[in-house]
Amino acid sequence: MKEAKKEEGFLGLKKSNFNFDIKTYMMVIALVGIWVVFTFLTKGTFLTSRNLSNLFRQSVITSVLAVGMVLVIILGEVDLSVGSVLGLCGGIVGILDVWVGLNPFLTIVSTLVIGMLIGLWNGWWIAYRGVPSLIVTLGGLLGFRGVLLGVTGGTTISPLSKAFNYLGSGYLPEMVSNVLGLGLIAYIIYYRLHKRKKKKEHGFEVSSLTLEIIKIVLTSLLVAMFVMILNSYQGIPVLVIVLLVAMAIFTYITKNTVFGRHIYAIGGNEEAAELSGIELKKSKLIIFMLNGLMAAIAGILLSSRLNAASVSAGDGAELDAIAACVIGGASLAGGIGNVLGAVVGAVVMASLDNGMSLMGAPMYWQQIVKGLVLVLAVWFDVATRNKGE
Amino acid sequence: MEYILETKDIIKDFPGVRALDHVSFQVEEGEIHSLCGENGAGKSTLIKVLSGVHPYKSYEGQVLLKGTEQKFSNINEAEEQRIAVIHQELTVFEDLNVTENIFMGNEIETNGIIDWDLMYKKAEKWINKLKLENVNPRTKVKSLGMGKQQLIEIAKALVKDAEILILDEPTDSLTDSETEILFDILNDLRDEGVTCIYITHKLDEVFELCDSVTVLRDGESVGSDKVNNLEKRDIVQMMVGREINQRFPERKTDIGETVLEVKDYSVVDPENPDQFVVKDVNFELKAGEVLGFSGLVGAGRTELVNSIFGAFPGEKSGEIYLEGNKIEITSPKDAINQGIALVSEDRKRFGLIPTMDVKENTSLAALQDFKESLSLNHNQEISKVRDYIDKLNVKTPSIREKVSKLSGGNQQKVVLSKNLMTQPEVLILDEPTRGIDVGAKYEIYKLIQELSKQGVAIIMISSELPEVIGVSDRILVLSQGEIAGEFDNSETRVSQEKIMMAATGGN
Ligand SMILES: Nc1ncnc2c1ncn2[C@@H]1O[C@H](COP(=O)(O)OP(=O)(O)OP(=O)(O)O)[C@@H](O)[C@H]1O
Ligand SMILES: [Mg+2]
């Protein structure tokens, strides 16, 4: 018994930390691998700052959807309606902005509220009426697209007002980008050292200072590179900023709040979660509302980027979002997944799209490769997970 | 001498733990060989090696069957050699019926088409053989209690017509009478020449049923002998490495004021709305008191406590008072907020979140305590979890280990820790020592006494009569949903006969 304990402090804890790190870093390494391959195949065009900037802008819509979707998946449910909700909300932006002439701020607020109400509708049927999420949101997939067709009469609405243009195609000035980047680095340093100090105060063993510093330097470098690359083109796209803020908020929710822990518990074992005092219905309702909100944000961003609202906007986007989450390590059985992974998954998919278009590969190849990558990613996850057994 | 089954120097490592350390183990043909050891000693791991769950190459050493080495790469290959296993955790398919479960994987076919008539007929025979009352071949398994589900699971292994039958804590959720039925069957099988490996924490069973015993401790085999040459004390000593003189700790409690009062409480059967599973129950529970609930399986004990806790679907009537105030509990959350905690009898289904680690499972019900403004204070959480893990002596390589990787008994301790962390005023324990070894049982009894000394009011449901009698201050016996007897157990201990009498409806 004694010896087993000794191991707990030394081997056990370290090992599990290591495992956790590996999973997150593995994704990033895979992404870098894909980039390297495309850089070779496109003779360097892929890695230009202009293209990378484009790539990030392209991935934003799927990423934003994935950030919301991953919560739903962790919960053990699925939401097929987000593509249509995205389209509908994008259309509403067009109507309010162009046809009604409402001011942009009010337009955005109303669209977000509508997105949440749609989420409320989905969530109510699922949580309080016990209809499976697959069915409710499949209904939504059909229904909300229908509503969009009805309200816009099938026309494309454009052009949007200036504010939306800035949101969709604007860049932060270099100065601001730099300040943000430096601020983030300062925060990372403070956060990691503070966390280490707190751990020490509690008498927990901490990793060596050198290792900590290496980690801090690496993450800071990553941030600095990110800012520098984007600055050497036109600056950080406003779209990307929106995504980063959403990511930060949702990562915080999942990792640091009671509510976040509850989502994982429900997805892992609903019955046991309920007996531990978790309110299933309320939690489910809130998650679907949040997901509706994210779909609305994605709708606003897409219309802004295209400077138009069209009826086909977001067609099939729900599948991209689900694929992104799964590539990012989420399990459709529930209980497993994280926000960062989902966004990396979305960037992986966008990279495949972007790289292959640069190579001039026909559309059908893009779909085939994306499909293959999805299957391979999950196979890899399953294979490495079973090894532990 | 040739053994029917033998292992040589088996080593099995998991990340951070060596589960088996050079285990050599021999089983003679036609015997019932018991495997004993503390929680986490490696018993289940050993049989998983024997039965192909842990495939060849994932361990070191040899598995020999009648002298020839076996290299099972999966369960099917072991089954082909006629080794059948009843695992510790239930693996029934709840939405399928009894017949479908019994023949799962062994469906009877004629010309490639499933012969349902024959299967239903055979299932009927098994049901009779296992004396399953009120069960027919088409009953959905979901609607059966854990004991009956376990018997179905046993039937599922028996139809495989095995030469070597391995049972991992099969009587865990069986009542005494169900256990007798199982023993009869096993004795018959022995007469037919079937070899059994039988894992249990209940030493009485070893002496009643088994021929030989092997004891594992911390992954090593510490001894093996014929049961006739041994006494209980010897086995316990081998298991824990020291002598345990007492089975139950001293009870010295000051019983305080009434904490919980339940009046005219009835619960309707959700499947059969015109029947009651609990009827006109009245009882009170005092601070610092341990109230034992005894009765046969199906007597309504679990339904009663679950309903009080807000976790039973059947409609209820009656009143509950907590410290004199009438309370309404509509969900487990209400109950926990009021200071009531429930450790459910089915840890896999109602206790654990398999995707989460030990830390997250332990703190789940008490998370609100670690809230600082919006955030969780992770460090505080870890400290608190470690406190409880140490106090209950949970054996795990780290608190970040997935709870599903712990041994059965240690999982049970995690569920207990989770509930203790909410610091309840009223603690309801439904079969709290299921699957827990002798040493750890004593620890849990001690914990129960300690908590009651601190003034916690405790309800303990247990199907083990000695346990109820050894731990409770007062015992209520339920029979068919009604209170059939109340015994004061504080000064002199009630006899088992009296309780049985009340439970079976005699007088
Ligand atoms: N899949 C696994 N992954 C990691 N560790 C495991 C796994 N299975 C078992 N272990 C570890 O191996 C050790 C032995 O576990 P095992 O389940 O064999 O114990 P046991 O003797 O059956 O105990 P119990 O009486 O509690 O059922 C334990 O420390 C357990 O945590
Ligand atoms: Mg076991």
UniProtKB/TrEMBL annotation, chain A:
Q: Which domain of life is it from?
A: Bacteria
Q: Name one GO molecular function term.
A: transmembrane transporter activity
The entry's localization annotation reads: Cell membrane
InterPro entries associated with the record: ABC_transp_permease
Identify the keywords attached in UniProt to this record, alphabetized.
Cell inner membrane, Cell membrane, Membrane, Sugar transport, Transmembrane, Transmembrane helix, Transport
The entry's cellular-component GO terms read: plasma membrane
Q: Which CDD domains does the record associate with it?
A: TM_PBP1_transp_AraH_like
So where does this one cross the membrane? 24-43, 55-75, 82-102, 108-127, 134-155, 175-193, 213-230, 236-254, 321-352, 364-382
Q: How does it sit in the membrane?
A: Multi-pass membrane protein
Name of a matching Pfam family: BPD_transp_2
Q: What does this protein do?
A: Part of the binding-protein-dependent transport system for D-xylose. Probably responsible for the translocation of the substrate across the membrane.
**UniProt-recorded name of the protein:** Xylose transport system permease protein XylH
From TrEMBL, chain B:
Q: Where is the ABC transporter domain?
A: 5-243, 260-505
- Localization of this protein: Cell inner membrane; Cell membrane
| Biological processes per GO annotation | monosaccharide transmembrane transport
Q: SMART domains recorded for this chain?
A: AAA
Membrane topology category: Peripheral membrane protein
One cellular component (GO) term of this entry: plasma membrane
Q: Which GO terms describe its molecular function?
A: ATP binding; ATP hydrolysis activity
Quote the PROSITE patterns the UniProt record gives: ABC_TRANSPORTER_1, ABC_TRANSPORTER_2
Please tell me whether the keyword Transport is annotated for this protein: yes
> Keywords for this entry?
ATP-binding, Cell membrane, Membrane, Nucleotide-binding, Repeat, Sugar transport, Translocase, Transport
Q: Does the keyword Cell membrane apply?
A: yes
* Gene3D superfamilies reported in the protein's UniProt record: P-loop containing nucleotide triphosphate hydrolases
Mind telling me what this protein is named?
D-xylose transport system ATP-binding protein
